From TrEMBL:
UniProt entry tagged with the keyword Transferase: yes
Recorded family membership: Belongs to the bacterial CoaD family.
Domain Cytidyltransferase-like residues, every copy: 6-134
Binding site for ATP: 10-11, 18, 89-91, 99, 124-130
Signal sequence annotation: none
Residues bound to substrate: 10, 42, 74, 88
Task performed by this protein: Reversibly transfers an adenylyl group from ATP to 4'-phosphopantetheine, yielding dephospho-CoA (dPCoA) and pyrophosphate.
Organism: Bacillus carboniphilus
Protein name: Phosphopantetheine adenylyltransferase
Length: 161
């Protein structure tokens, strides 16, 4: 049986924190689907297509990573891909409280799909897409937070200039 994981998120934009989880997950699982979800409670800067393209660019050297998007329930996507694990990154205790709710609901919907929590590297424990966008908005240096492709895409967005 293959070990297949789905690593979901809004990835608006993808950061080094996200990449830390994806890279480490790719060493544990045979295949990792990085799935861009549209979080209705957030107002994204990038379209789903733009986010997928950026993720593809920055994960091109990880052969067992597949980038995709989904509009429905995460658990349905996991079933469609044959995933037996949902891979989630945690930065702090506050993340755990939020993640526990989603995990409990996913378990109720399908108890055969496990959730695997991975603590992000300490150097990225403060990092979020929101913080990256805020720093970029005020023309701050984001080179240590995101890959160069993402930095370029942020500068190209008219709302950031």
């Amino acid at each position: 049986m293959s070990r297949i994981a789905v690593c979901p998120g809004s990835f608006d934009p993808i950061t080094y924190g996200h990449l830390d989880i994806i890279n480490r997950g790719a060493k544990i699982f045979d295949k990792v689907y990085v799935c861009v979800l549209n979080n209705s409670s957030k107002k994204p800067l990038f379209t789903v297509e733009e986010r997928c393209q950026l993720i593809k660019e920055v994960t091109i050297d990880i052969p067992n990573v597949v980038v995709d998007s989904h509009k429905g329930l995460l658990i349905e996507y996991a079933k469609q891909t044959g995933a037996n694990v949902i891979l989630r990154g945690l930065r702090a205790v506050s993340d755990f409280e939020y993640e526990m709710q989603g995990t409990s609901m996913n378990r109720l919907l399908d108890e055969t799909i496990e959730t695997f929590f991975m603590m992000t590297n300490n150097q990225y424990s403060f990092l979020s897409s929101s913080i990256v966008k805020e720093v970029a908005k005020y023309k701050g240096d984001i080179r240590a937070l995101v890959p160069s492709q993402v930095e370029k895409a942020l500068w190209e967005k008219s709302t950031i200039k």
